[in-house]
Specification:
The chain is an alpha+beta fold. The chain has 14 helices and 16 strands. The protein binds one RNA strand through α3, β6, β10, β11 and α11.
RNA sequence: GCGAUUGUAGCUCAGUUGGUUAGAGCGCCGGUUUGUGGUACCGGAGGUCGGGGGUUCGAGACCCCUCAAUCGCCCCA
């Protein structure tokens, strides 16, 4: 008989467990809390969309659309795509789900996204983001509010220290296009001296040359035309107001004139929160204004701003651990199994983090309980006397002693099993108690 | 898509220039010891040495291909 082969996990997917899963959950929980402080409304989005939602939003020539999307035909012959980002889907919903009536609309969501990329640290094919968008708001205050929320989130996650906010403006559509043309002209003059990657970028995505890491490009990027020279009066004014608003909101930032966005829909404000603690995947949160996107999807001109952050990347920077075990109930007397189960449920209902050790060799259960590092251990042991229907409870004194735990145990036992047991100070230090007739008790 | 490094038990790893029946620690299961306690000892389960092909009398070690992980490039959050 052939051996059954275990299916392999799909490349770039992760099975997250233990402390890492706690860190992941902590990021999401913190995001949920902060997002409510700013009154961003929760939305749930489909994981797949018609392919054109993304191809028309992000730009046909971007890497994401041209080679990283999980696209497939469904049984009806429709081309569908697993979402590679949130913004395009939310913009689509804004137009098709009647959300325009709520404009200006602040929404937040989180969930899995899919990109066919080479996996490495902090980069996966199924990855997860938290996301916040403000749609239908043309004012710089919207940018400021969004950035203030991001800043507060990172502070509450306790990782703001290693992270800096880099800010830039790409200008309005005419400014951006003029700058783009100037960059193409400038780099074309030096094309032969540029790195192969940048020569390629020259045609597809010239802005990207600016943040090239190749030393051959560095001398030219430093001298390249700056966006500031191409900004219209309105664009300049807009960026100025964003900067002032951030100052008023107490958000620290650095100007980075080389900061650009990879996706075509970005205008005006562009920003990234960057850390040096994550190797190559240094951007922890990024976004900007995308005033042109909704029109690309067939809607009226609708200004909007948004950001997204990789949960995995944030989780790597965050401290989180699994909840400590407050009480281990050790069943050393197998006949008292049902009693121990009942006691454990009782204590959990009282809010104790509680786990029962009742399997395997009875004489080794105590040792296993100790290894779980509980604050307290409650041993359900055989009675001293002949009454096989009784149990003997022991609470060994522990260094991690916790008053709440001992008094909860006291109260629960008194209420359920031993109403006559005197409530005295010394009960909190009890080492042993014989309970009669509880093994068969309901 | 490109480059480098790595792949031996559930986990962390050892395995000498190719040489009998592939090991340890931890974990798991059981036994003994202890008996108000995180002890010690004994035993057991668990491996087609990532997969395929080749060189050789002989491959976990060498060669080729492939898959995967890690770290960079690219891209992006």
């Amino acid at each position: 008989m052939a051996k059954i082969e275990t299916p392999k996990p799909i490349r770039g997917t992760q099975d997250i467990f233990g402390p890492e899963a706690e860190a992941f959950a902590h990021v999401v929980e913190t995001f949920e809390r902060v997002r409510k402080l700013y009154r961003f409304r929760r939305v749930e989005m489909p994981v797949f969309e018609r392919t054109e939602v993304f191809s028309r939003s992000l730009g046909e020539t971007t890497d994401v659309v041209s080679k990283e999307m999980y696209s497939f035909e469904d049984r009806g012959g429709e081309s569908l795509t697993l979402r590679p980002e949130f913004t395009a889907g939310i913009a689509r919903a804004y137009l098709t789900a009647g959300w325009q009536q709520y404009a200006p609309l602040k929404v937040a969501t989180h969930g899995p996204l899919f990109r066919y990329e080479r996996p490495q640290k902090g980069r996966y094919r199924q990855f997860h983001q938290i996301d916040a968008e403000i749609i239908g708001a043309a004012e710089p205050q919207a940018d400021v509010e969004l950035l203030a929320m991001a800043d507060q989130l990172l502070k509450e996650l306790g990782i703001a220290d290693g992270v800096t906010l880099q800010l830039n403006t790409l200008g309005d559509a005419p400014s951006r296009e003029a700058w783009r043309q100037a960059l193409i002209g400038y780099f074309r003059d030096h094309k032969a001296s540029l790195s192969e990657d940048s020569q390629d970028r020259l045609e597809r995505n010239p802005l990207r040359i600016l943040d090239s890491k190749d030393p051959r490009d560095k001398p030219f990027t430093a001298e390249a035309p700056k966006i500031d020279a191409f900004l219209s009066g309105e664009a300049q004014d807009f960026f100025g107001q964003v900067c002032e608003g951030l100052k008023a909101a107490g958000v620290a930032w650095q100007r980075n004139e080389a900061l650009v966005r990879g996706l075509d829909y970005y205008r005006h404000t562009a920003f990234e929160f960057v850390t040096d603690r994550l190797g190559a995947q240094g951007t922890v949160l990024g976004g900007g204004r995308y005033d042109g996107l909704i029109e690309n999807l067939g809607g009226l001109h609708t200004p909007a701003v948004g950001w997204a952050a990789g949960i995995e990347r944030l989780a790597m920077l965050v401290d989180a651990s699994e909840p400590t075990l407050e009480l281990a109930v050790v069943l050393e007397y197998p006949a008292a199994d049902l009693f121990a189960q009942r006691l454990t449920s009782l204590l959990r209902r009282e809010g104790l983090v509680c786990e029962m050790f009742a399997t395997g060799s009875p004489r080794k259960r105590f040792d296993r309980a100790v290894k779980a590092k509980p604050k307290h251990i409650l041993v359900v042991a055989a009675p001293d006397g002949d009454d096989a229907n009784s149990v003997f409870l022991r609470v060994p004194s522990m260094e991690r002693r916790d008053e709440r735990v001992s008094s909860t145990i006291d109260a629960a036992i008194r209420k359920e099993f031993a109403p006559d047991w005197p409530e005295t100070e010394q009960n909190h230090n009890w080492v042993g108690l014989t309970l009669g007739g509880v093994v068969q008790a309901q």
